[in-house]
Request: fold
Amino acid sequence: MNMSLLLPPLLLVGSNLVMTYAWYGHLKQPGWSLWLAVLISWGIAFFEYCLAVPANRIGYGTYTGQQLKIMQEVITLIVFGGFSVMVLGEPLRWTYLAAMGCLVGAVIFIFLPVD
Reply:
């Protein structure tokens, strides 16, 4: 199996799990001061970069830059959808699912052959 085909999406899932926690995990800690939330989030985000940068470097060539970006956006919405329900306790509304459907359409278009 070609690792440059499978590894980038897996690394992007990992990076999105970390980044979602960095960006939104502090919302469960309303007592933290803003500077503390920023500092902790920034520290967590470092590990996201340790996954996202290799995902894009390894994947570029197998995938175009545009394909990697659309892939990352869809993964982000999937990860955040789960996070918002499981961690933040928010309902998954139909509008969120409709937006996800639009991004799935974007994935289909970006992976269509150009010729």
Notes: The first helix runs from residue 3 to 24.
